[in-house]
Write a structure and sequence with these properties.
InterPro entries: AhpC/TSA (IPR000866), Thioredoxin-like_sf (IPR036249), Thioredoxin_domain (IPR013766). The chain is of the alpha+beta class and 181 residues long. The protein is 24% helix and 20% strand. It has a single domain, classed as Glutaredoxin (3-Layer(aba) Sandwich).
């Protein structure tokens, strides 16, 4: 197998403006916070076929209020179809928005790792492996975590404590990891 290289988004760069659909039919621009909040956590997940994704989405719900307290909005995203998301919502008990229909080209735009399904029973399309971005009020990437498998994801309590610290103006904490070359 030949080596394939991917382009990754780096901390401090402007988060790409991509609009995706919610179940309601509303379009949502990723990285554009809602509800009077000024930062946004954008969570890319594999899709309804992944039980670890379902667990993580539900766990994120339990931290939603802590994120809101520090001004961070949430949106989750997958390459699933509307029908697949509708089915998944039977297992996902969240009240933050979930967008669907992320294309392979859009996955590449965000620098996500992409996998093919192991069988038709798993899913019917290539899907993004997990990725998490926190976009600041300037629209720039403050925090990035990209994984090539479902077993490695940020520990949410540590992430939220870190974001609380970063957002405290007394700490004057810059975007880290700016020298990515």
């Amino acid at each position: 197998m030949s080596k394939i290289y991917t382009n990754k988004l780096h901390p401090g760069v402007t988060f790409p403006k991509v609009a995706l659909s919610l179940m309601s039919g509303e379009q949502r621009i990723l990285g554009k916070p809602q509800n009077g909040l000024d930062w946004q956590l954008v969570l890319f997940y594999r899709g309804q076929h992944c039980p670890l994704c379902t667990k993580y989405l539900n766990l994120l719900q339990t931290y939603k209020n802590k994120l809101v307290e520090i001004g961070v909005d949430i949106i989750a995203v997958s390459g699933d179809s509307k029908t697949q998301l509708e089915s998944h919502l039977e297992k996902v008990q969240v009240d933050y928005p979930i967008a669907y229909g992320l294309t392979v080209e859009q996955m590449k735009t965000f620098g996500l790792y992409i996998s093919d399904p192991r069988s038709e029973q798993e899913t019917d399309h290539p899907f993004a492996e997990p990725g998490l971005f926190v976009v600041n009020s300037d629209g720039d990437i403050q925090v990035v975590d990209i994984s090539n498998n479902p077993f490695v994801r940020p520990e949410l309590e540590a992430l939220i404590n870190g974001l609380r610290w970063i957002r405290n103006p007394d700490n004057n904490y810059p975007i880290r990891g700016m020298h990515s070359f």
